[in-house]
Design brief:
Length: about 350
């Protein structure tokens, strides 16, 4: 049997090996590695364009990391010559593990192209989607592929859905949502749906800049998404939506929340009985702008009474490992950012819907 596993290696350096997304991927892979069966791993990394195939978004650096974890060779499939790839897989001995290059280098991936789905499916006999974090996307390696071979959800997805359902079945108040990061339309769109249930929404990152600007504040040359402001009337008007008061800046650009904001947010977080957090508060790639996120993480992890969900690639990379390692049982670390928020808002996740149809 040859299995195709869609997992999530969309994880930035440094600290990949400790990142919960990577740990989740490794757990799924280990469950599928066997002495007889072959395994093909699919993932995307970043948002490359199929025309440019940006080299820094190759999955190749993950080969040694995965080999080290699973203790066996991982063959890297560095091109998309599907007939040739099929031959390589067929002639490989049982138990072989392959990693295909970034599926977002492929034309048709984002368009859920049927022919691409057929080609990807032709590499194996069954498909397992264990990439919860991308399940809000209707892409060929998540959706079209399911039309051609038996497809099911993997253990990580089942685990996350079960826990997300449990936490949301009886949300306790005060219910606090923290939203930061860069993907504004994904996050603020879904926030509209969660807003009626929330008691407070604390904003950082580009979502904060966007709302600040919509409320008439001068954000200088900072990043904001003005295109979606017209759809965010409820959020911009809502008193529950709290924005930063002070910032760490460079050349008129906001890069992090400041100490007064940290204090204000910490007080709100301390009273919460349910917390959802997705997205760093600042540009954490630069150490000097990682402070706000670290302080918010400290406040979130210190509240041991709240049921908490923390998710998203950038958030998990930005939260110090010492917090993740010692987190209480009340904290669910989700691999999903946008997918997690949509699920919590009761929205369908297209990649999971595709799996249902094959059952
Ligand atoms: C994520 O980081 O949320 C997933 O990897 C999906 O990435 P995307 O927002 O680029 O589709």
């Amino acid at each position: 049997m040859t299995s195709i596993l869609r997992t999530n290696l969309d994880i930035k350096s440094p600290g990949i090996r400790k990142n919960p997304r990577f740990r989740a991927a490794v757990t799924s892979i280990k469950l599928l590695v066997s002495p007889d069966d072959k395994l093909i791993i699919l993932s995307h990394f970043g948002r490359p364009s199929p025309e440019k195939m940006e080299k820094d978004l190759s999955l190749k650096p993950f080969v040694p990391l995965l080999q080290r974890e699973i203790g066996k060779k991982v063959f890297f499939l560095d091109n998309f010559d599907f007939p040739q790839i099929r031959k390589s897989i067929e002639s490989a001995p049982g138990g072989s593990v392959f990693l295909l290059e970034n599926v977002r280098y492929l034309k048709g991936e984002l368009e859920d192209d049927i022919e691409l789905g057929r080609n990807l499916a032709s590499l194996g006999e069954r498909f397992i989607n264990d990439d919860f974090a991308s399940s809000h996307r209707k892409h060929a390696s998540l959706s079209a592929i399911t039309r051609f071979i038996p497809s099911s959800a993997g253990p990580q997805i089942k685990h996350e859905l079960e826990h997300l359902r449990l936490i949301m079945a009886a949300p306790e108040k005060p219910f606090v949502i923290i939203i930061g990061g860069a993907k504004v339309s994904d996050k603020l769109g879904v926030l509209k749906k969660l807003l009626p249930r929330a008691d407070a929404v604390l904003l950082g990152g580009v979502p904060a800049n966007t709302v600040l600007q919509a409320r008439g504040r001068d954000i200088g040359a900072s990043l904001a998404d003005q295109d979606i402001v017209s759809q965010l009337h409820e959020i911009v008007q809502s008193e529950k939506v709290i924005v930063p008061d002070d910032f760490r800046k460079e050349k008129d650009i906001i890069y992090d929340i400041g100490p007064r904001t940290v204090k204000k947010y910490t007080a709100v977080i301390g009273t919460a009985r349910n917390i959802i957090w997705n997205g760093p508060m600042g540009f954490t790639e630069k150490r000097k702008f990682a402070r706000g996120t670290r302080d918010i993480a400290r406040a979130v992890f210190a509240n041991r009474h709240a049921k908490t969900i923390i998710g998203g690639g950038d958030t998990l990379s930005a939260v110090p490992y010492r917090f993740l390692k010692n987190s209480s049982k009340n904290i669910l670390i989700s691999t999903g950012g946008g997918a997690m928020l949509l699920f919590l808002a009761g929205e369908p996740l297209p990649a999971l819907e595709s799996l249902d149809k094959t059952k």
